[in-house]
Amino acid sequence: MTTETNNSAVEFTPDRLEKANEIIARYPEGKQKSALLPLLHLLQEQEGWTSPEGMDYVARMLDIQPIEVYEVATFYTMYHINPVGKHVIEYCRTGPCCLMGGEEVYSHLKQRLGIETGQTTVDGQFTLKEVECLAACGMGPVFQVREKYYMHLTNERVDEIIDELSK
Amino acid sequence: MAIKILTEHINVPGIESFDVYRKQGGYTAVEKAIKTMTPDAIVEEVKKAGVRGRGGAGFPMGMKWSFLAKPEGVPRYLVCNADESEPGTFKDHYLMKNIPHLLIEGMIISSFALGANKSFIYVRGELMYVIHILEKAIAEAKAKGFLGKNILGSGYDLELVVQPGGGAYICGEETALLESLEGKRGNPRNKPPFPAVKGLYQSPTVVNNVESIATTAWIVNNGGDAYAAVGIGRSTGTKLISASGHINKPGVYEIELGVPVEDFIYADEWCGGIRTGHKFKALVAGGSSVPILPANLALTLANGEKRLMSYESLSDGGFATGTMLGSGGFIVFDETSCIVRNTWNFSRFYHHESCGQCSPCREGTGWMEKVLHRIEYGHGHQQDIDLLVDVSKKIEGNTICPLGDAAAWPVASAIRHFRDEFQWHIDHPSEATQPGAVYKGEMALV
Amino acid sequence: MEDVKPQLVKVTIDGIEVEVEPGTTILQAARKIGPAVAPPAMCYYQPLKGSGGKCRACLVRVAAGSAKDPRPMPKLVASCLTAVQDGMVVENETNPQVIDARNGIVEFLLLNHPLDCPVCDQAGECDLQNFAFDHGKVTTRYEEDRRTFEKQDIGPYIQLHMTRCILCYRCVFTADQITNKRVHGVLGRGDASEIGTYIEKAIDNDFSGNVIDVCPVGALTDKTYRFKNRVWFTKPVDAHRDCPTCSGKVTLWYRGEDVIRVTARKNEWNEVEEFICNTCRFDKKKTSDWTIEGPTKVSRSSVISANKYRADTIKPSFGQRLAAAEYKPIHDERDTSQLDIQQLPPERFAKVLPSAMEPEP
Predict the structure, then answer these.
(1) Which residues of A touch B168 (CB under 8 A)?
(2) Which of B141, B145, B196, C208 has CB atoms 3.0–4.6 Å from B67's, for a disulfide?
(3) Which residues are registered as beta bridge partners of B235?
(4) Could you tell me if A66 lies within 8 Å of chain B, comparing CB atoms?
(5) Which CATH number applies to B339-432: 1.20.1440.230, 2.60.40.3360, 3.40.50.2000, 2.30.290.10?
(6) Chain A residue numbers touching C186 (CB-CB < 8 A)
(7) pLDDT confidence of C312, banded at 50, 70, 90?
(8) Which of A99, A100, A130, A149 should one mutate to test binding to chain B, selecting the residue with the greatest count of B CBs within 10 A?
(9) What is the interface pTM, i.e. ipTM, of the complex?
(10) What fold characterizes domain C117-222?
């Protein structure tokens, strides 16, 4: 049984390949599977999402079965296994943020973007996702775009951020 | 001035850099440990300090260390649990972001004490920017000879690896964390064997929380006895409390264990009181999984004494009238909060985060969430409250890992202390589902 | 070269003492005593390394940890993974807390499991059906939507009906341990987990058919047998052939003269004794392909034994006698000539009915 997808399509850029090899070398001999989560982050950083072709590429790189990658990528919520917009807004929906008005701000955000949870704006700029606690409860409401945390959100602040990201 | 063991220098400008940290006395504990102490002597000091695991379980750290199996020729690992994901908890985030070298210093000391030559810091993937901060700190420490081969000429080698998670609360459970670190799904392992015998790559492993590891620098510098002199009874030392919710000053505070809950909420030094113009309704003292308490029980014990911020005092009265210190995720609710909605919210969290491996948790968390959702949205039945209690009981204690308990406790405790509020939702659905509607019946507001 | 026999340890389960080798699990010790005290197991599968601990059906209470340390264990433990200690006292069916927990487990497993036993091929040899029969309730307290999935063909021989899956992971362990490349696994998380291949792939391997045998429910079924019959109408016979790939030791399932299904042989705990290859399972369905050894031993409590009792060994219950006394043929005018129904041999009825009418001795 071989992997059907012929995936010369996805490959790490030279600097990411170097990074990937550096990551793989971190673990003891024979334990290279430990590099799976970091490599998937690297893949998603490059491709914008965690594509099947990309997962197969990572599987070959680590010499593991593709299913082992799919199992992992679908378990963890950070990996976007479907294509997403340019900016993925990951909005915290958990209790402490809600106490600080998180639900009202979220309604505003949805209205502002004109989309519901899980959807992408027609211009492909924004994808909206709900996530659980981001460990910033004292600074809620909170959302995250890539690595950046946006905290103490209000309707006005949300508008500013969207304007800024839309530029 | 209250003693600060972890955060004394946290506001020093540039403390995230090696040079500033070093100027504040940083890495002297590494020097002392590696040059003048044996690994066993360090373990002894940590035992004497009586520091209890700061991730939530509160298991004595020194005892955990002494359980580590030491077979010949097998590597041992130290893994730092920085997968902080418990709702209400953001102390490790704060500590790592602001003073990364404190954790690195603790990691070097702890690894040396345990005889580990490769140690991991498993950070939740969402905190990628913190991972970059830690990696920079590690590179600095390595450049100065505090990491890598032959540290400070002692012959001791140590590599530190920062590992990102992928977004899964369950990886805060230590065996799920190890699975994840091995590149697998975060399914907790059945125990025994415990990680101390078979952990990472089937080798003996210690998993400790960020805050726990960070304390070792101070313990080495000042001695275990000095640490144990801080705090109250078996709750030694200080604790980082992440305070959120309806208080005037949310944030992370380092307190000496034993401070009265009342002082912690109302003193300007800490939370600064309940949001101005509002009343105190309920408290989740140690992260979303610990039982919620109504205001009166949060502040006083059943015997009328003041409740203190300590492991023992918070759990006084068992689950009937007490709760737990847990991870120190301190969430305060004022009278505008709907307990039913919040319980549903927490329940949704555990449903979403269940790994799905064992049946009571996989099926039970979803069931509880759906019933709570029904009640919150005005479709509850009379038998639903008893149903929730029964389902929570059938999950509790019957699962592979503590997530089942963590999902059951918030539901059971909310019903225990706020049953009337649930009943009101069922009896008066049209009223209860009005925007902003909150139960106004009899309750102990402070 | 004398074998050094390890000192046996003594464990008491539901008041019955048994001696086993050190390292034996509570569940295996209980099985040694017999089916009456053996805890149910939905995920544990002795031939598969690493299985167990997930379904929690086998929870027991340890009332005394060992002779040395007779304290009880604080929580119920998974008997499939907990090793016995000398002097351990275990409560299984005798402890109400255990029964309550098991009732809970059945309820949890059935929340999302369809009530489609009447059309499910696994009915009659289904672990979950048996478990529900012992510990389930007639009604459900669950009124929310259940998760459902489309049926999926994974290869020409196997159908996956994920709606029925209880996520025991047995098929994943099987693929890991007896095939060289696993292509299916557990995807997703929590109650949204599912068995799948992610990208549509066939499970194509000489031993892939074994996932059907290990499945405790009807989630993985044999497409060459689907809807062909009910297991209690068939007659299992042990047989073997000289197979270049596997041991060739199988059970043939007869309906009349026809072999309608081939499976691996299973022990009394429904566990495969030796895994068989796909050629034996799917391609060799003629009696002439096989050397017949004799009837498969089937537990009398199994429905597979139904209609196969010897009239002189079984005493009909009062209910059966009553039913037989009130038996009336149904007047049915529908035309069944176009349906391909194999008739039951009439002598079966003849054997059962008269004896059922006999007065109790």
Answers:
(1) 75-77
(2) B196
(3) B232
(4) no
(5) 1.20.1440.230
(6) 71
(7) very low
(8) A99
(9) 0.94
(10) Alpha-Beta Plaits (3.30.70)
